[in-house]
């Protein structure tokens, strides 16, 4: 959680605390206490509906975030498959394919990954996929062993291109604006209903309201941080590609 997120939570809690203080001053608890039964019934219905909505969105954004992380590992696995096949291919195709896979991993990590937080990608990485594909298709297998390597290489190239497309599609995953409006209005309505209750103990009332508000705001912050899989404090990192590069022998 970033400093701005913590500041937002604290500001909301301070504003609510001041609001409760003013409410207690101008509308004493004994005035509101007469409506506790009706307010409690409506609050229970509103709370359940909002909890369902909030839980659904949190699970959805978490699932999208985890799916994006899995996609990066599948993409890196396909790239690793091509690389290890290139080590068994003769020159000049083998070394060329080897260098192209390394260049792709480096380009994705250093150039494309920062761009993805702004919902962009780099044409250089796309061009490298085309080069890898063209190099693989240029292989003229001699013998059964090279034929097997060629078939596996083609399969890995198809997987690489497929997982790359999936990753770039996931860059634009986000909570729709309409759903954000529902989340914010639901939060205001849910917390606002707690102001209608009248309790003789003002401190207890304040603590209960701030606890509920803190939980709701924290949930919204979690949704914001997970909203874009490749941005925010919980952004997917290029770990898969880093692991791929760290475990490779020196290139030929």
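^ structure tokens above, recovered residues below v
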């Amino acid at each position: 959680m970033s400093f701005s997120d913590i500041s937002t939570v604290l500001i909301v809690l301070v504003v609510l605390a001041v609001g409760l203080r003013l409410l207690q001053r101008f509308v004493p608890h004994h005035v509101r206490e007469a409506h506790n039964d009706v307010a409690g019934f409506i609050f229970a219905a509103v709370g359940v509906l909002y909890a369902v909505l909030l839980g659904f969105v949190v699970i959805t954004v978490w699932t999208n975030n985890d799916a994006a992380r899995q996609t990066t590992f599948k993409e890196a696995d396909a790239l690793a498959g091509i690389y290890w096949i290139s080590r068994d291919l003769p020159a000049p195709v083998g070394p060329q394919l080897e260098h192209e896979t390394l260049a792709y991993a480096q380009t994705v990590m250093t150039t494309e990954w920062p761009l993805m937080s702004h919902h962009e990608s780099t044409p250089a990485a796309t061009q490298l996929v085309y080069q890898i594909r063209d190099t693989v298709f240029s292989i003229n297998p001699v013998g059964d062993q090279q034929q097997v390597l060629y078939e596996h290489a083609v399969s890995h190239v198809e997987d690489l291109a497929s997982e790359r497309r999936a990753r770039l599609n996931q860059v634009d995953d986000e909570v729709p604006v309409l759903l954000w409006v529902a989340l914010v209005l639901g939060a205001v309505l849910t917390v606002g209903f707690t102001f209608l209750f009248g309790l003789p103990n003002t401190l207890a009332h304040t603590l209960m309201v701030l606890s509920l508000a803190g939980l709701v705001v924290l949930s919204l912050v979690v949704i914001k941080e997970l909203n874009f899989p490749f941005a925010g404090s919980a952004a997917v990192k290029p770990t898969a590609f880093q692991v791929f590069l760290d475990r490779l022998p020196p290139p030929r």
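Residues 36-86 form the longest helix (51 residues).
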